[in-house]
User: Which sequence fits this backbone?
C-alpha cells in the first residue's frame, strides 16, 4: 500500500480511488461501440469483473476483444452505454484526468510497444518517471519488476537485442512496475511458441494471485482452457458465452 | 525547504526533478544531432544578430546626435555700418535674458579672416574694396529651451532694431532627427520580421522533432503521461535553441563591432564626437539571451500546441 501511495502522490484526488475496495472492479452496462462509417465493433455488452479476478477474452479475429480492452483505459470512448472502473464512471471522467486513469491500468500489447532507442531499464522506468517517482526509488522498483519477469541481467540491453518472449516480458515489467490494480493484455502470446506462451501466462497468473484484476484477450484456446479461469467468449461484438471456470475454489 | 510539510516538499522535489530531467534530456537530444542543431542555431544566431547590430548602431548614432541637439544656436546678422561698440553693448544686454545662455560677437574682420581661411577664397575677398561681411552676434540659447521656444526667441530677436536677419541653425538638426526616426522605425520593423523568422524556424524544428518521436509520444500517452509531461522536453528544446542562438548572436555582434571599430573611430573623430559603436555589455547580452529564449519558447509552444494534440494512441 505504501508503494502505491508513492506512485500516485502527485495525482491528488486519485490517491485513494482504487483503494476503496469495490466488489466490482470493471463494469460494462449496455456498451456499444460503433465506428464512423457504420462498423459496429461491440453490441450491447454487459458484464462485470470482480476485484482480483482473472478473466480471459476469447473469440475469432474481429470479434471485438481489442476494442473492449481499449475502452477500459479510455483509448476510445464507447458510443453508447456506460463503463464503471473501480467505482469511477468513465463517461464523467474529463479528458485531462485520463492520464491518471491510465497510470492505474497496466497495459500489455502483442507488439510490445517498447521504445527501441532506450534500454530495458529506461523502458521499464518510464511509467515511474511519468508518475514523478523520486529518482532514488526508480532504480529499486525497476529492478524489482525486472526480477519478477526474470530479466534482471538485461537492464542495459536494448529491446532489439532481445528475443520476442523477452521483449514481451519487458512490456509486462513496464505494465506492473507501478503496481496497478488492473492489468490488461491484448494477445500477449500472439507471436510466441507454446512453451513461451505458457511461461507468459503463468506470469499473469502470479500477478493475479497477489490481487491484480486481470483481463487477457487471447485466441490460444488450448492454453486458456488449461488455466481454468473465467472466460468470456465474444463473437461479432456480442458475448456469446461466459464460462465461470474452476480455478477458484 | 525543511520547514515545508513532507507532501509539499515531495511535490516540489518531483516537480524540480521532472523539469531538470526534461531540460537535460532535451540538451542530450540536441547534442546527438549535432550538425542539424548547429545549423538551426546558426540560422537563429544570424537572425538575432542582425537586429541587435542595427539597434546598437542606431543607439550609437543617437548618442552622438543627442549632443548636437544642444548645439543649436541663433545667428544675428547686424545691420551693416553699426559701430562695433554698439553691437558689443547689444550682445552684453542680450546675455542678461533668461532664455539666453551666452553670446559671441564676430566682427566683420574676424569673419573675413575665418572665411578666407576656410574657403580659400582670400583672393576673391581681396578684390572687393571693402569687407562685405556684416558683424554677427551668435546667440546660444539656454539649454532647457525647446524647439518652439527657439522659434519664438528667433522671431523676437529678429524684430530688434539692430538686427538685420536672425537665422535659426536648427533645420539640419530637425532633418537629422527625421532621418533618425525613419531609420529607427525601419530597424524595429526588420527586428520584428527577424523575430518572426526565429519563431518559425524553431517551430518547424520542433515540429520535425515531434514527428521523429511520434511512437514515443504515443507510448507515453498510453501509459498515462500527461500533456504537460509530453510537452515539456519539446519546450525545453525550443528554449535551448533560443539560448544558443542568443549566445551565437552575441558573438556575431562582437565580431561585427570589432571589425568595424577602426573606421567607426575615424568617423567619430571627424565629428569630434563620442565613440560611434558600443559593445553589447552585460545588459545587452542578457537582453539578447532573453529575446532568444523567449522567441524559442514561443516557437516551440506553437509547434507543440498544434501537433501534439493530433497524436493519439491507436
Assistant:
Amino acid at each position: 500500500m505504501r508503494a502505491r501511495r508513492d506512485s500516485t502522490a502527485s495525482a491528488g484526488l486519485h490517491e485513494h480511488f482504487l483503494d476503496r475496495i469495490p466488489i466490482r472492479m470493471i463494469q460494462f452496462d449496455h456498451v456499444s461501440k460503433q465506428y464512423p462509417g457504420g462498423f459496429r465493433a461491440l453490441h450491447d455488452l454487459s458484464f462485470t469483473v470482480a476485484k482480483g479476478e482473472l478473466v480471459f477474452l476469447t473469440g475469432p479475429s474481429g470479434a471485438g476483444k481489442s476494442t473492449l480492452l481499449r475502452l477500459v483505459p479510455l483509448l476510445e470512448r464507447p458510443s453508447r452505454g456506460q463503463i464503471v472502473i473501480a467505482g469511477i464512471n468513465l463517461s464523467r471522467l474529463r479528458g485531462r484526468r485520463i492520464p491518471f486513469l491510465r497510470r492505474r491500468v497496466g497495459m500489455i500489447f502483442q507488439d510490445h510497444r517498447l521504445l527501441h532507442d532506450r534500454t530495458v531499464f529506461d523502458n521499464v522506468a518510464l511509467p515511474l518517471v511519468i508518475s514523478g517517482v523520486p529518482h532514488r526509488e526508480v532504480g529499486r522498483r525497476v529492478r524489482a519488476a525486472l526480477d519478477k519477469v526474470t530479466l534482471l541481467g538485461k537492464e542495459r540491453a536494448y529491446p532489439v537485442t532481445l528475443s520476442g518472449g523477452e521483449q514481451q516480458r519487458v512490456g509486462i515489467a513496464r505494465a506492473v512496475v507501478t503496481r496497478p490494480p488492473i492489468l490488461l493484455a491484448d494477445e500477449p502470446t500472439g507471436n510466441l511458441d507454446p512453451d513461451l506462451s505458457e511461461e507468459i501466462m503463468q506470469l499473469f497468473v502470479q500477478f493475479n494471485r497477489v490481487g491484480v484484476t486481470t483481463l487477457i484477450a487471447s485466441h490460444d484456446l488450448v492454453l486458456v482452457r488449461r488455466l481454468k479461469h473465467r472466460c468470456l467468449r465474444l463473437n461479432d461484438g456480442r458475448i456469446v458465452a461466459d464460462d465461470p471456470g474452476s480455478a477458484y475454489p | 525547504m525543511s520547514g515545508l510539510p513532507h507532501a509539499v516538499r515531495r511535490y516540489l522535489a518531483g516537480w524540480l526533478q521532472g523539469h531538470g530531467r526534461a531540460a537535460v534530456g532535451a540538451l542530450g537530444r540536441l547534442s546527438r544531432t549535432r550538425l542539424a542543431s548547429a545549423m538551426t542555431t546558426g540560422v537563429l544566431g544570424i537572425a538575432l544578430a542582425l537586429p541587435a547590430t542595427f539597434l546598437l548602431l542606431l543607439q550609437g548614432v543617437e548618442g552622438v546626435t543627442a549632443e548636437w541637439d544642444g548645439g543649436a544656436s541663433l545667428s544675428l546678422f547686424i545691420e551693416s555700418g553699426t559701430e562695433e561698440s554698439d553691437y558689443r553693448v547689444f550682445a552684453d544686454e542680450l546675455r542678461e535674458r533668461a532664455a539666453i545662455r551666452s553670446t559671441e560677437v564676430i566682427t566683420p574682420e574676424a569673419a573675413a579672416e575665418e572665411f578666407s581661411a576656410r574657403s580659400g577664397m582670400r583672393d576673391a575677398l581681396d578684390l572687393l574694396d571693402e569687407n562685405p561681411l556684416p558683424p554677427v552676434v551668435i546667440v546660444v540659447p539656454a539649454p532647457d529651451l525647446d524647439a518652439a521656444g527657439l522659434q519664438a526667441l528667433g522671431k523676437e530677436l529678429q524684430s530688434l532694431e539692430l538686427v538685420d536677419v536672425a537665422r535659426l541653425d536648427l533645420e539640419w538638426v530637425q532633418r537629422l532627427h527625421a532621418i533618425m526616426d525613419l531609420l529607427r522605425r525601419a530597424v524595429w520593423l526588420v527586428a520584428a520580421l527577424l523575430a518572426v523568422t526565429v519563431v518559425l524556424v524553431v517551430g518547424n524544428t520542433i515540429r520535425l522533432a515531434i514527428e521523429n518521436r511520434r511512437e514515443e509520444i504515443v507510448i507515453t500517452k498510453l501509459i498515462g503521461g500527461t500533456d504537460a509531461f509530453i510537452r515539456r522536453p519539446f519546450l525545453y528544446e525550443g528554449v535551448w535553441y533560443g539560448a544558443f542562438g542568443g549566445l551565437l548572436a552575441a558573438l556575431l555582434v562582437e565580431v561585427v563591432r570589432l571589425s568595424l571599430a577602426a573606421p567607426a573611430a575615424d568617423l567619430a573623430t571627424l565629428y569630434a564626437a563620442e565613440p560611434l559603436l558600443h559593445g553589447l555589455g552585460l545588459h545587452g547580452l542578457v537582453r539578447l539571451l532573453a529575446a532568444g529564449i523567449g522567441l524559442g519558447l514561443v516557437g516551440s509552444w506553437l509547434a507543440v500546441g498544434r501537433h501534439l494534440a493530433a497524436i493519439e494512441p491507436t
Summary: Chain B is about 75% helix and 10% strand. The two ends of chain B are 43 Å apart (CA to CA). The first strand of chain B starts at residue 74 and ends at 78. Chain B touches chain A at residues 7, 10-11, 13-15, 17-18, 21, 215-216, 218-227, 229, 313 (CB under 8 Å).
